[in-house]
Amino acid sequence: MSKTQPAAYSPVHILLHWAIAALIFFQLVFGESIKDLGRALRGDGTPDAMTAFMGNAHIWVGIAVLVLTVLRLIVRARFGVPAPIPASRVQELAARGGHGLLYLLMIFVPITGLLAWYGGIREAGELHELAKPLFIILIALHVAGALYHHFALKDRTMKRMITSRT
Ligand code: HEM
Ligand code: HEM
User: Fold this and answer.
1) What is the largest CA-CA distance in the chain?
2) What's the pLDDT score for residue 3?
């Protein structure tokens, strides 16, 4: 952990937050594409160009999520993050727990995907698919929390994940 607590998220941390969020949305929306590729490869072994492209995109975008998340955790440990905006103890615990679970899934989901695809471990594929609804619920709660802070509490929670300026 960094020794001094910064007043704001670093620009790199902010950029990584939004880039990773966009990549995860892509994965959740087009997740079926890799199953189509798997089916085509098991079938006649020659997927059409679109199936091959989208299936490979799932692999590369997923690997990008893993690499960028590791990078983000390093940036987080090196430069720290600002103190939570004062809220009730329950709200603070919910935010901290939610963020922790999101980080866990951002690592766990790509790894299970890799184990399923390259290792042929069926159980890893099942866990990978089970994580999908969990990911969607956590993101929905996370976004609802961010919008609640912005529109109801009108505090700086949202602004500080958009700009480093304090
Ligand atoms: C954050 C990153 C990732 C997310 C959010 C994600 C999400 C998804 C989703 C939504 C599905 C479809 C599940 C369903 O239809 O029930 C899926 C399937 C799959 N993904 Fe990923 N994925 C990620 C990374 C990866 C990576 C890096 C690989 C490695 C090759 C991978 C391999 C697979 C495989 C093999 C399946 C089919 C599983 C099966 O049929 O058992 N995924 N993924
Ligand atoms: C796949 C989508 C997303 C994931 C995985 C994700 C993940 C995270 C994580 C792990 C943190 C904690 C950062 C840290 O302390 O290191 C965070 C913070 C934050 N996220 Fe997201 N996020 C996503 C999408 C969004 C969206 C769509 C919004 C806005 C509508 C949003 C708004 C925020 C805000 C405002 C913070 C700062 C919270 C604070 O400073 O207390 N996130 N996000």
Assistant:
1) 59
2) 56
The mean predicted confidence, pLDDT, of the chain is: 95
11-161 under CATH 1.20.950, yes or no: yes
The domains of the chain are located at 11-161
2, pLDDT greater than 70: no
* Six token digits for residue 8: 């704001």
Pocket test for ligand 1, best of 26, 32, 34 (most atoms within 8 A of CB): 34
Contact 142, 161 (CB under 8 A): no
pLDDT above 60 for 136: yes
Residue 45 · residue 109 · CB < 8 Å: no
What is each CA distance from 97 to 90, 92, 116, in whole angstroms? 10, 8, 28
| Backbone region of residue 154 per phi and psi (left: phi > 0; alpha: psi in -120 to 50; beta: other values) | left
Does residue 123 surpass a pLDDT of 60?
yes
**Residues framing ligand 2 (Cβ under 6 A):** 17, 21, 24, 76, 81, 84, 95, 99, 102-103, 106, 139, 142-143, 146, 157-158, 160-161
So what's the pLDDT on residue 166? 82
Q: Which atom of ligand 1 is nearest to the CA of 28?
A: 10
